[in-house]
Amino acid sequence: MKKNMATEITIIRHGETIWNVQQRIQGQRNSKLSENGILQAELVANALAKREFDILISSDLERAVETAKIINKQLHLPFEYNANLRERSFGKVEGMSFAEINQQYPVEFHSYKQRDPKFAFSGGESIEQLFKRVTTEIEVIAVKCIDQKVLLVSHGLVLEMMMYKTFNIRLSQPRVFSINNSSISSFYIDGDRWFLKEWGVIEHLVSLNVLNEL
Q: What would be an example GO MF term here (predicted)?
């Protein structure tokens, strides 16, 4: 890999939200950061202040924007919103708990739990659609910001799709790695070649016990 021709992309999962705590599916609906989530965002901002970046790009969903604004109080980077970095859409079940979904839509819930890549709740996205949206947009950003250091604030399943792309994991395979709120992960993107630099850094969170992977 010619590192000087690659784009380094560091991606942060937003801070914990009220719906994370309540174990509700957020999807593309908005849920504010919890007090814990605000603290997480402040702690990750402190950690990121020791690094260098050229631009900050955030999902346009409220929880990501709120996290990004807390981070940018310290970093003072050029700041953009990007709707293609949104969480997966879960359509009609957004705002519901897993128990409520299982009770009201048991057949669809089964397809969801089986991780059928083509399955989507009514009005929502399939894993295949999410994967295409995320990986296409990351590669667009990488070309636009070639040889730069880009900081993204996004969502758990966006991070998941980036890992599945990097290691060519089948979309039907269950996830076997953690995605904590306000964790730090970094990739090198060189055309259609993706390389993992670091995954799920949480040193800035561990001491204060503010972790949450929901």
A: fructose-2,6-bisphosphate 2-phosphatase activity
Q: Which domains does the chain have, with CATH numbers?
A: 3-88+126-206 (3.40.50.1240)
Report helix, strand or coil for 58: strand
Q: Is 18 among the annotated ligand-binding positions?
A: yes
Whether residue 24 is annotated as binding a ligand: the answer is no
**Pairwise CA distance, residues 52 & 33, whole Å:** 26
For residues 118 and 126, what is the distance between their CA atoms, to the nearest angstrom? 5
Has residue 2 got a pLDDT over 50? no
Is position 198 annotated as part of the catalytic site?
Answer: no
Which of 42, 66, 87, 94 is the catalytic position? Answer: 87
Res. 9 pLDDT band, cuts 50 70 90: very high
106-125 residue pLDDT tens: 999 999 999 999 999 999 99
* Encoded amino acid at 43, one letter: L
Which single residue is written with the structure tokens 């949104």? 86
